[in-house]
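Sanity check

After download, print the first record. It should look like this:
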Amino acid sequence: MKKDFRPFILLWLGQVLASLGSGLSTFGLGVYAFSLAQSALDSSLVLLLGFLPSLLLLVPSGVLADTYDRRLLMILGDGLSGLGILFILLVKVYGQLTLAHIYIGVFISSLFSSLMEPAYRASVTDLLDKEDYTKASGLVQLASSAKFLLSPLLGGLLLKHYDLEVLLGLDIASLFVTLSLTFAVRKSLKNQTPSREGVFVKDLATGWALLRENKGVYSLALAGGGLTFFIGLLQALAGPYILSAFTQDQLGLSLSLSALGMVFGGLALGLVPLKKNFLASLSASLLVAGLAMASYGFYPSFIRITLSGFLFFASLPLANASMDYLVRAHIPGDFQGRIWAFMGLISQMGYVLAYPLAGFLADQVFSPALETQGALAETLGLVLGTGPGRGMGLLIILGALGLMAMGLGLWLNQDLRQLDALTQEGDRHDF
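Expected structure tokens:
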């Protein structure tokens, strides 16, 4: 009998609200940090410190997701993650909020969020049949896109009339609704009982060995790291880049309209699930994303930046769904949590590298080089222009070239070709 899709929808709605609230805080804190220091590096460090703890704890959380109650892990992760935002809110109301306070708060929030992600990803497999995987993948990405779609637009509008406290308060409030929806579907989720025979370190080693054994899946993990590096590069620079030429409400509008592309791509996958040609779809989507990213970096035009961002985000759901299906179809269910955790650790290391590197290179190398009297003013400056934001534009264009090269390299990878062929034949390889 086909599994009921409704519990997944309720769980998904909770994550939409959590993503929306988190996006409000991220947008508000990013604008606040940039206003304090006028530095792309300081702004990118907010992203890094809000991301790094959850990444470092992702693998242990994956083992927990395979051995303990995934429902409890999701509830604890969502609920306790609000403590970091609450800390920032209290300091802002009763004291003087500095960058150090922001760093501490986002670190705490990310620390507890790490409990939720592997359990949530593994629960999709518990709730759905195999033929619904790509549909679910599109909807999951749509939920994640809420922080890029609605949050910047809403955040920009709210900051015109209210202070940062309102955005932080809305984030905390969204978590209560998310927890209620998770409770509502708890009976539909698999109740993992603690394994008395398993040893935590042994479980980690087993998960890593299983991942390395399948060369195609491991190659996809590395490809995910490359993709997140280029996404992180654009994420870290988009705010300072747009603010160098436009206002903060225009920043929010541009980011929100750009993120409509992810909604478009996610809905398209939800309506027309991907069933074949996964590797070709992955490579093609990365080439399109690279072209859009290159256009993003040229002399700032609000319309072109927004359209380029739309096309960039529209290509990501297809890339992610292609990788998601190729991985999910070749992982045994009992190892979903830890394999996804290792996949996440490897793939998301791209963000860890991109966030600080993008800010440093923008502030110390590329921006000075494309000032009016900079080292590249008489060469690339004749094409890209000189002055505020142009160095960041050049860095974005170089990242776009790297992304397109990666898309071509994946198409030529023999391990991925073999994995794709097995998937086309319907051969599930459970290690």
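If your output differs, re-run the checksum step. Summary of this record's structure: The chain has a mean pLDDT of 79.
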